[in-house]
Amino acid sequence: MCWYSTLLFILSFVITLIYGENRKMTYAFNPGCTHQCDNSTILVHVTADGINDTLHHIWDFTSKPTVFLALTPPNTELTIDWDNFLWNGKPGSVKFSNEVTYSFSVVFDKIIEYNDTNNTAQYNPTNHSKDYVTILHPEVYNWTVKNHIVTDDVITLVVESSNYKSDNISKSGVTRITLNAFGNSEHSSLQPHLLHTNNATQMDIVLDGFNVSYSKSRFALGLLILSTNDRHSNLTQLKRKSLDDEHSPGIFTVGEVLTPFEADTTKSGYLQWRTVAYTSHSRLMTNSTDVIETRARHVEYPRRRLNLTVVSSYFGEALNIMPVHDMFVSFGVKDDGYYSKTGYLSWTVLAGIGRPAEEGFSLLVLLILAIGLGLPALLIIVGTICIITRRIARKRDAIFITN
């Protein structure tokens, strides 16, 4: 079995080279906050320490739900002036002790219900008619923590809110957001089992049991995407095929939104998802629907759109010279019965720094291939050696007898 152990070591070494070393993670809830915070204050800071850098995951639900990823040198501390952060979002009330190498953020700006009378499952962001669209503002929600799980490799936070009420809009139902930070590179345990690196936060958004405003209601999400790239840089949106049928059978398309790549590949960010959402708690292909995104557009007056969020409190006026885009993601497919058919919708997406992971053969598959191909090859080699040895031995015997 020595050859088997050697093969396993080599494969493990290759996996490490491809995906990198694990990060050591620590978790802080409302770090440094005392009398200013109450049950409605939710800000989580996950510190993921690597060999050469530290990735900070900040999950902020004090205003619009925000995932703020910041890559810094090691031993960098986060400090929050909670008085100024909570009451007026003062610039500089969130800061790091060292300069941020690169940051990438996604903000949940809107939850949109729209009347798909044309049965296209494509949201039109230019139509603001009340007969067409109802906007829910996530910063109005009363978010509560339902669960948090801390392990060596994964940190999980589950936040939800029920019964939205604002102005003349009232919605029953639950909005749930599950966030995961990872210390390793692996497939998520949650269907559709996205392949994450150790530089990513996974977001799972659920809209469960909503009462609808229209007879043909569908839902969409409005996202704000920002990074510390050049002000005039654009996002690249693409679809690519995936070879993976082991973890997500039947789902062969991956959607991605990418910031420009630089020579230093850590100075880039991305969103990545499989082009499927689920319409039932049981996440099966039979209970799935399509994901359709609009083209990302540059945002005018980003500081105003991001007011009171953690990114606004960190960047301040610099937001006005940063690339900030908005993008809408809608869910559904023609003749699927609309949202009211099941009253449930879930979508999972990764936000990460660096380049997104690409599917390859898993370690298990590589071992099976190695054993399946290596064992017959080994038998052939051993058999050939035995045959040659026997022939040489026979020739020696023949020569000996002749003499």
UniProtKB/TrEMBL annotation:
It is found in: Lysosome membrane. GO terms for cellular component: lysosomal membrane. It is a single-pass type I membrane protein. Keywords: Glycoprotein, Lysosome, Membrane, Signal, Transmembrane, Transmembrane helix. Coiled coil: none annotated. The chain crosses the membrane at residues 363-388. Residues 1-20 form the signal peptide. InterPro entries: NCU-G1. Belongs to the GLMP family. Required to protect lysosomal transporter MFSD1 from lysosomal proteolysis and for MFSD1 lysosomal localization. Interacts (via lumenal domain) with lysosomal protein MFSD1; the interaction starts while both proteins are still in the endoplasmic reticulum and is required for stabilization of MFSD1 in lysosomes but has no direct effect on its targeting to lysosomes or transporter activity. This is Glycosylated lysosomal membrane protein. It comes from Rhynocoris fuscipes.
